[in-house]
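Exercise: predict the fold of this chain.
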Amino acid sequence: MTARTQRNRLLAAGAVAASLTLGLTACGSSGSSSGSSAGANASATVPAVSADPSLAALVPADVKSAGKVVVATDASYAPNEFKDDKGNIVGMDVDLATAIAKKLGLTADVQNATFDSIIPGITGKKYTLSMSSFTDTKEREATVDMVTYFSAGTGAAVKKGNPEKVDPKDLCGKKVAVQTGTTQADSIKDTINPACVKAGKPTVPNDGDKFDLQTDVTQALVSGRDQVMLADSPVVDYAIKQTNGQLEKVGDVTDTAPYGVVLAKGSDLTKAVQGAVQSLMADGTYKSILEKWGVQAGAIDKPVVNGATS
């Protein structure tokens, strides 16, 4: 997800002790805890979605004539967006994007993309929008619009039993696996390592062991290449489940913040997407999708346009 940095939510450096904690969230939302994916049921069905004429009327003419929205997602971030065993792109964000499009009388053309290419693809009009676990931040809002729809935070995982005795509140000198471009990657470079230097401790090597795909992040931990991984909380939960007990969570979820649907800055489609998300919340579709993927604890009540606080 990348959003995962450009899923980026930088914190001002405070006291050294506070700065040594997991500083940022890749995804997240204001004030609610991360969703657990323990109850995920990918084969579950969700209610059929019909177009809302009042929302469809808000769709810009060029999008309406195309009949679709081109949705970019980095399909390596299960359970939010990933490829199933048949190569289909699936996940919470994919189901929500499909439902949003239907509310607007459109179809969703979901395309896989590397996380750090997505925002440039939005500004360059390659994609209509993105749902890829992007944290809504002030930095991102400077170049794109974001419609909030979910809440998550940063989680940490280690090998079962924590043989390296990793303390997520003090990662100085630890080998930490993260996805390239994520908030977690930025937190190491901009918050954790500067605090380690200030405290006279060794830094996280190379500002973290960075991988383009979250699946490779997880594998680096499982193989013992790295001692701990940082990722969005629902992604950590899902990785623990999928690795059949080889990993465990350590520490608390930190820095909850909202995910946002990414659209071009000032897009006429932004209000339509906000309305579609609100409608899906009202009719129960939103809840059903989150329950399908076991992430219902990350539900929010109201989508906001450009509502980042940091």
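Check your answer against the key: Residues 5-38 have pLDDT under 50 and may be disordered.
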